[in-house]
Amino acid sequence: MKKIGLVLAVVASVMLMTSSGTALVNTAQVVQGPPEVEKIIVAIRADEMPARGGIPGPPEDKEDKEEGEYKLIGKGVKWKVTPVNYFINPENPQGLTEDFVTGAVFASAEEWDSHTGTELFNNTYVIDYDARFDWFFRDGRNEIVFGDYPWPGVVAVIHIWGIFTGPPEQREIVEFDIMFDTSYIWGDVALVEDVMDLQNVSTHEFGHGSGLDDVNAEEETMYKYVEYGETKKRTLYFGDIAGIRELYGA
Predict the structure, then answer these.
(1) Could you give the number of structural domains in the chain?
(2) Residue 232, C-beta contacts closer than 8 angstroms, at least 6 positions apart
C-alpha cells in the first residue's frame, strides 16, 4: 500500500525528491494579506519520500512512549480568539452526502476540542455551497471544500494565514482554508476499506489549523504520512494531546 507524504512548504523554495530521485521544486512563497499577515502551505503529497541514503523505504519504527512527539508551527503561533468558526462546502463529484461530509469534518474538529479546556472550534458550523478555497488572499472565513488541486500528487492542502514572525506573544493564526483533492477517492473506511478516509485526513488538517506541524512518529495524528484505508489519525495520540495542550491548555 503506497504511503502519502505530508510535506510542509513554508515561505521558501523546498527541494523534494520522488522515489525515482527526480527533484521536484516547490516555489511556494509568502503571500501578503493585511500588514504583517503571511501565508504558509501544508500539502499532503502522493510522492513517497526517500528514506535515509535517498532510497525509498518505510518510516523508521518509533518507540511507544507516553510523552509522544509533537512540533509546533512556531512558538506562539495559535488562535488568540476562540472558538473558531468554519464553513463547510459539501459539494463533491463523488456522491458523498452532505450529512457524511459535515459529520466527518465536525468529528475531526471536535476530536481536538475534546483534549483541551479551551473551546477551540465552535460546536456549530455553517454549511455554505458558495464557500471557496482562497488561493492567494484571505477573505476572513475558514473554509473547507473539495476541489481539483493543480499540483500533481496532492491529496489535501491547507493554507494558513497568520503572523509567524516577531515576538512570540504577537504571533497568531487568523485564518485557514482546507481543500480535499478530488483526484483521490474519499469516503468512510468503516464502510469501504480502500478509500481515503475523510475524517482521518480532516483530523490531521485541523491539527495544522490549530498550530501543529508534522512529526515523524507514526502513532501520532500529525504523522507526516497517510495511507488508503487508514483511520488511526481520527484519534489523537500522546504527542498530539501534549501539543494541543501546550497551545491551548488542558
Answers:
(1) 1
(2) 200, 219, 221
